[in-house]
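Journal club side-thread
Mid-discussion, someone asked how the predicted structure for our own chain would compare to the paper's figures. Pasting it here so we can look after the session.
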Amino acid sequence: MKKVTLMILAIIVVCVTVTFIIVATNGVKTSAKADTHMVENTVYENAYITNSDEGKIRFIWNNNDYEVAGFVKENLEGISDIDVVEGKIVKIRYKGDFVEGNLLSYNRASNQIEIEGYGYVDTFEVVPVYSTIDGTISEISWDELVLGGTKLRYVLEGDKVCAAILTQKTDNSNIRVLLKTGEAYLYDNVYVKSDNNCTIFNQNTNETTGVAGGTVIDVSTLGIENGDTRIITPEGGTFCYSINGTDYSEHGFEGSLIVRNTGDGYALINVLAVENYVKYVLPSEMMLSFAPEALKAQAICARTYAYSQMKNMEYAEFGANLDNTTAYQVYNASGRFEQTDAACDATQGQVVTYDNRLAVCYYFSTCGDMTEDFEVWESETPGYIHKVASSDTNSPFYRWSAELDLDAISDAELGKLKSISIDETSENGFVLKLTAEYENGKTELKNENLIRKFLGQALKSTTLNDGSVRENLSMIPSACFHIVSCDASRYTIEGSGFGHQIGMSQYGANNMAQNGSLCNDIICYYYNNVEIKQIGEIN
C-alpha cells in the first residue's frame, strides 16, 4: 500500500496561531438552521472561520454558524481550532498546510482516504467537510461526495488530514461500477483482454505501459501491491475479463478497468461515461420488445438512479459508486442494442426531479394491481413515491402460486422450521410481518426483501399466470401473497406481481406506451409531483 509523507508533499503554508483580546459577550449563533446557540467553554476543532474583520469572528462548526466579537491582526479565513474560555475566544490556531487532489477512495474503518497523486493518507477519526462553491460556505457530509469526480483541498495537521474543503463542482460525467459475480467481488486470478491496444497506468509512479491488442493481461504479473491499483484502458473499443478461470464478460466493457489489490483478492471497477452505462443497463433491465416510449421512460429512470447513487458510500473503500447487480441496477448482462441505444440517445441527460433534486427512481417488473410505498420497507415514504393502479395483466408474474417445503429451513439455535403465519399486511395485501415458528422458539420477519429471501429458501416451484412453471427462483416473486393451504411442512401460497412494487412498473409502463402515453406521461404517473429536467439543471 502506498503511503506518503504529506508534510513533504504538501503545499506548505506557515501555520498561524493568533491570540487576541475578546471585546464582547458570549458568541451568538446567527444561522436560521437551528435555535440560537451560545459558544461554550471548549475547543472548536477544525472549525471554518468565514470572516474575522470589523471586530467580529464568524465561524462554522458542527453545522452551526457562530459570531463572536473580537479582533485579530489580519483577516483570517479557513480551518482553525478555536479556544473558548469563559465564553470568550482566547486563541485561534489557524491550519494552513494542505494538498489538493481527486478523492479516489475512502475507508471509514481504517481512517484513510486515497488522493489522486498522493496515494493513501491517514485521517483523524472525525474529518469535517466544508463547501465553498458559489461563494456560500457550509458544512456537508462525506456522503455528499462523488468518488472519482470530487477534487478537494485536504487540510493537514501533521501528516494527517483534519478537514477537507470542496472548492469546485463535482464532475459526475463518469460512473464507477464494482463488478460482482453473484455475491462475490474479490477474485484471486484475473485476466484482461482487448482487441485494441491498451495502456496500463500505475498511479504510484505515474508511468504508463502499452500492451498490444489481443494480448491477455495476467493481473498477477503487474506487481500490484496490497492497496494499490492499475488502470487498464483500451484505445477505443472494449475489454473483456475472466476471473478464476471463468469468462464473465462475453459482451465486452467500455471505458477503463481499475484493478485494486485488497489483500484478500482483486476488486474490479469499471469506469465509463454515465450515458454509456445507461445503454448497458437498459437492455439488462427491460425487455427489448417493449414499446419505444416505455424504453425511454426506463432510460430516464435508470439514468436518474445512476446519478442518485453516485454519492453512495457502500463501496467507498474500493473507489466504486455502485455495483452491477439487482442491488442497484443490472449492468451489462445483455450488451447493447439498437432500440435501447436509441431510447437513451433520445433522452440524453434527462433525469427525474422532485423539488429540484434527483428522485431515487425505484422501478420493478410487475405490479399485482396497485403499487406500494415504503411501508413494506419499514421506512418513511418520500414525497415522490405514491400508490397508483397499474395494469400488468400481460405479465406472466401478474398472478402466481408457489409451493414451499419448510423442511428446507432450520436455525442453529431454534431448530427446524415448523410453521409460518402472516400477522400483518398492508391495505394492498403486502405482508408486513411474518412469524416463523421453530421447534425451540419463533422469530418475526419484517421488510419485503427479507421475507421474500427467507421463504425463497423453502421455494420448490412457482406456477406463473401463463401456466409456466419456474423451479430456479431464489426468492418468492413478491411480498404480496397469502397462504392458501398447508399440510405439515408443505405450504401453498398465492401472490401477485414481481419485485418490490415501489415506483414504476415496467409492464405497466409498456401497457401505457402501447396505449399512446409518452415517456414523460408514464414517469409523471408512477412518480408523484416530479419534473423531467436535464442533469445540468440540478443543484
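Post-session note: The mean pLDDT is 91.
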